Hints:
By secondary structure, the protein is mainly α. Helix content is about 85%, strand content about 0%. The chain has helices at about 5-25, 30-35, 35-55, 55-70, 75-99.
Amino acid sequence: MKLPDDPFILELLPEFxxxxxxxxxxxxxxxxxxxxxESLYRMAHTIKGSSYQFGFQELxxxxxxxxxxxxxxxxxxxxxxxxxxxxxLLEIKNYISSK
Length: 99
């Protein structure tokens, strides 16, 4: 697994992971249950931007896919990509913990 080289980014990485895992557990289900497209779109847009800032191209690309799914009301696809995003975050977190 390739992690960012920047020591400052590496220092912030655990907070990034924990913050997104918390949002996916607490905020996302509420927004999804009421199909709040606007708030879900903002969340996906932030997933995209923050993931790219941390050097995680694949996660940023997932954010773009999620934005498109929200626009197209593809709720099943959105749910699948949310799970994929969460699993990738956990994979990174476990990798960091093992080092």
